[in-house]
Design brief:
The protein is α+β, with helices and mostly antiparallel strands. The protein is built from five helices and four strands. β1 and β2 form a beta hairpin.
Length: about 120
């Protein structure tokens, strides 16, 4: 239970790497499911900072709904859509991202798209 709480508390890449090293030292190479859990913990923290109220996956698309009080400026979202292939922004504040099959994990793909919007990093 302590290990799961430690993973759930990861908020940055540095913490993610430290936890992964600790797990490897204690238990050997972590299975893909644990690596995925670490990736999602970092994504969750990023979504909280950007005030993304929901993340929903539908097939090969992920819809990210921004809360009305998000710190992300609308013009930054528009610029992201212009630059990032496979993204679109609805007037309701939902950013839709198309996923490439086999590229990287879903969490990593979404995180890499959102990182430029994180002015707190």
């Amino acid at each position: 239970m302590r290990t799961y709480k430690r993973i759930a508390g990861v908020t940055s890449d540095a913490e993610r790497e430290a936890v992964q090293r600790e797990l490897t030292d204690r238990f050997g190479a972590p299975p893909p499911a644990v690596i995925n859990l670490l990736d999602y913990a970092v994504l969750k923290s990023l979504c909280e900072r950007l005030q993304i109220s929901s993340v929903e996956r539908h097939g090969n698309e992920v819809a990210l709904k921004f809360h009305p009080t998000t710190p992300v400026r609308p013009e930054n979202l528009v610029e992201l859509v212009r630059k990032q292939k496979g993204t679109r922004l609805a007037p309701s504040g939902v950013l839709t991202v198309s996923l490439d099959r086999g590229a990287e994990s879903t969490a990593q793909t979404i995180r890499n798209i959102l990182l430029p919007l994180d002015t707190g990093s």
